[in-house]
Amino acid sequence: MTRVFVWNCQLPRLPSSLHAHLHDSGTYLSGALFTLGWWIFLDGLILSRTHDSIALGFEDWLPGLLCTLGMIITNSIDLSLLREDGFGYGSSGLAGKAKLTLFIGIALLAGGLAGSLTILTIKYIVPQVAADVLYIGFTGVLQSVAILLASVALWLVHNSDYDNQYNFVLN
User: Fold this and answer.
1) pTM surpassing 0.85?
2) CA pair distance 82, 20, nearest whole angstrom
3) How large is the average pLDDT for residues 139-143?
4) Nearest 5 degrees, angle CA 158-CA 159-CA 164?
5) What burial letters (b/e) apply to 78-108, b meaning 16+ CB within 10 Å?
């Protein structure tokens, strides 16, 4: 029996009847969070068209795009690649490359979240805009948080010991 530890804390074991549906429901949850994040941002984008005082530019789109790219990069790495210990002479160094790629993906996710918070502060909070315009600034932050949570959910579900591979079947 293998134990799964996250940050030196053991995860609770699920009943075996839930193992079959964990992969699918986690994937659906991740997709719902990702869609919700972009939906909220598009709501703010549409609402910004009704206000003459605010104009959304590329800087408002950039955090969501960075988080999306970070989610794609982070979830394209298999957990088994990170556990390889090939540091000897003649080794492929695949574990190191996978760790670097994972770091870049997580940095993009964190940078997108930090960027959305910075844009909220500089563009919306400091000038003390009206509450309905402030909502437009919060949509970028909510989008980044939703994409970050979607990425974490997808990473945990697809890198669990229950089903460690994507299985694509072409009919």
Assistant:
1) no
2) 25
3) 96
4) 75
5) eeeeeeeeeeeeeeeeebeebeebbeebbeb
